[in-house]
Amino acid sequence: MFGPDKCGGDYKLHFIFNHRNPINGSIQEKHSKKPSERLEDLINDKHPHLYTLVLNPDNSFEIFIDNKLVNSGTLLDDFMPAVNPPAEIEDPTDKKPEDWDEREKIPDPAAVKPEDWDDDAPAQIIDESATKPDGWLDNEQPHIADPNAQKPVDWDSEMDGEWEPPLIDNPACESAPGCGTWEPPLVNNPAFKGKWRAPLIDNPNYKGKWRPKLIPNPDYFEDKTPFKMTSVEAIGFELWSMSKDILFDNIIITEEITIAQQWAADTFQKKRQKIAKDSESVIEKLASLTVEYPILWGVYILGLGIPVVLILYFCCRPSSSNAQKKEKEDLQRQAEKKKTDEASENIEDENVDEDETGRGDQENEDEEEEEEENEKEEEQASTSEKAPEEGTRKRKVRKE
């Protein structure tokens, strides 16, 4: 028998073979020692695993899990019970003599208990020097019934018994050194020595631990080649499980380890690779693909950078519709001022006929152009010294 076994909290990796007694032909199971590796994580991870047993003609064995060595030894030394029985066994008819003394130490028979030794002295006694503290409240109890407690509505006296309020610390005892009946404390008894026992000495009659004498084993044999075990005639599975999705496949028994390794590479390794690939997340797949094709870093940068640039552009750029709307509102306000004969900055009062009010936006544009020219001319007039005639001429031009 070879393979994993989980029984409750016990995890095993069995290797059991049947050994035939060369003397009487009886067959006995031989169980290998436990693996050195922990098996809990491997058995419970719900992943496929490759179990490999290698038997060598020199009686050595090796056990691998996923090509990792987890147990090794020899068929002669690392199995229970041992392949070869002992050459000698204990005589089943031998009995221990009545005068056989197995005690290494005995009480000293010459020891005598001292006269002042009191076996009944207590370990602690009352402290005679202790006095009751001042302010001790003898008439107050350390705990009193809670006056604010109320019996529950669903309390059934017949079923639950008589209700009693819970106890709380007595408020009167908070500032006092103590309440209730005062009792002196206990101290260690200097006369206490415990029960007297005689000291132990070496036993002069000690003969050691008795064991039956050894006799030749009538069933002794020596099999130096347990590797030549019984033949494998078929393969079967011993299963008892309440867990689903436990599957077995790709089983091979061969005399060439290279054939088994190639078989595992063609089946198990490919299966593990496909499972790992199918279980990868999208991010893991992208990471693996990027390692294979580094040029994808540029694609990632462009793919992430372009949306960011577009978002910033549309969120931060000035709105042309708002600017046009504001400009139109300014023109309408100036047109209203013109209609109501309100004074405008740097523009002389003029009489506007009613028949000119229908010119609309064209007049507003002309007025804005005139305002810009007026501002330029005023700046030139403030920085240069000109004759009054030039100012008059400029106003005439401005009026025209």
From TrEMBL:
Biased composition (Acidic residues): 343-356, 363-380
InterPro entries per UniProt: Calret/calnex (IPR001580), Calreticulin/calnexin_P_dom_sf (IPR009033), ConA-like_dom_sf (IPR013320)
Protein name per UniProt: Calnexin
Annotated stretches, region: Disordered: 83-118, 130-150, 324-400
Localisation per UniProt entry: Endoplasmic reticulum membrane
Regions of compositional bias (Basic and acidic residues) in chain numbering: 92-107, 324-342
One GO cellular component term: endoplasmic reticulum membrane
Keyword Lipid biosynthesis set for record: no
Key words of the record: Chaperone, Endoplasmic reticulum, Membrane, Transmembrane, Transmembrane helix
UniProt record similarity statement: Belongs to the calreticulin family.
Membrane-topology annotation of the record: Single-pass type I membrane protein
Stored Pfam families: Calreticulin
SUPFAM superfamilies linked: Concanavalin A-like lectins/glucanases, P-domain of calnexin/calreticulin
Transmembrane segments: 295-316
Keyword Protein transport on entry: no
